[in-house]
Amino acid sequence: MGLNRTDGGVYRGIGNASGPIVITPAFNEDATYWGDWGYSGSDAYRLDAWRLIDADGSTTLLDRGRRLFIHGGGCEATPPTAELTGPTTADTGEAITLDASGTTDDGTIGGYEWDFDADGEIDEVTAGPTTDHAFEERGNRTVAVTAFDTYGNGDTADLQVNVTVPATPPNASLDAPASATVNESVTLDASNATDEGRSSATSGTPTATAHSTGPPPTRFSSTRTTTPAPSSRR
């Protein structure tokens, strides 16, 4: 938090609330009135942490990008039942919609945590049950969503997606001498051909040696015919 300052509030009557009180945080430039009111608009007043201080003085560091839910009374321990649907195949770079709207809970869903690469790290948090995602590399991908309620109970579902490269032809390229003489060996080079996936012709090498052949040289002969002059008799 900024130097020598805190922001907070004191509320009463929470025990009579019919549902959770939802706090959607916004800090610094994301705050609606950042720069419009005192103690804001510059690095001197920038907030770098969101802390929850309990009545006994203990402190919990909160995620500044996530909503906070406040309930009156005790806590519930029953988690939601997560469900995830979506396409099971996709091309690289293609945005697909992942849908967890089939998730059920006996209370209120608080949000959805998305892990797009099965590394156990949360890649995105959404309040709604759907999100769009595009995979940049091919392969079998596991997407997981953890649906959590407003008490922090969660359940996880996953989906397998087979990501392939779009079926587009390669871009062929061929380098060769502009001319050759008969019986001269020349190198043909296709190594500059490109493809965003894997070419169907992956065996062999991209170069080859060709031997220029042709018909033998044509020989021309010139025949001179002499016609004798007519004889004359006297």
Overview of this protein structure:
The protein is mostly beta strands. It has three domains: 14-70, no CATH class; 89-164, Immunoglobulins (Immunoglobulin-like, Sandwich); 169-195 and 206-211, no CATH class. The chain has no helices and 13 strands. The strands form five sheets. It has a five-stranded mixed sheet, with no helix packed on it. It has a two-stranded antiparallel ribbon with strand order 1-4. Strands 2-3 form a two-stranded antiparallel ribbon. The protein is elongated.
Q: How many distinct helices? A: 0
Stated plainly, the CATH topology of the largest domain is called Immunoglobulin-like
Gross morphology is elongated
Give the averaged pLDDT, no decimals.
83
CATH superfamily of the largest domain: Immunoglobulins
Write the CATH architecture name of the largest domain. Answer: Sandwich
User: How far apart lie the N and C ends?
Assistant: 142 Å
Q: Descriptors for this entry?
A:
234 residues, mainly beta, Immunoglobulin-like, 3 domains, 13 strands, 0% helix, PKD_dom_sf
Summarize the model shown.
By secondary structure, the protein is mostly beta strands.
Q: Secondary-structure blueprint of this entry?
A:
Blueprint (H helix, E strand, L loop, with lengths): L20 E3 L26 E4 L5 E4 L5 E3 L18 E3 L3 E5 L9 E7 L8 E3 L3 E5 L4 E11 L4 E11 L20 E5 L17 E5 L23
Parallel strand pairs: 5-11
Antiparallel strand pairs: 1-4, 2-3, 6-9, 7-8, 7-10, 10-11, 12-13
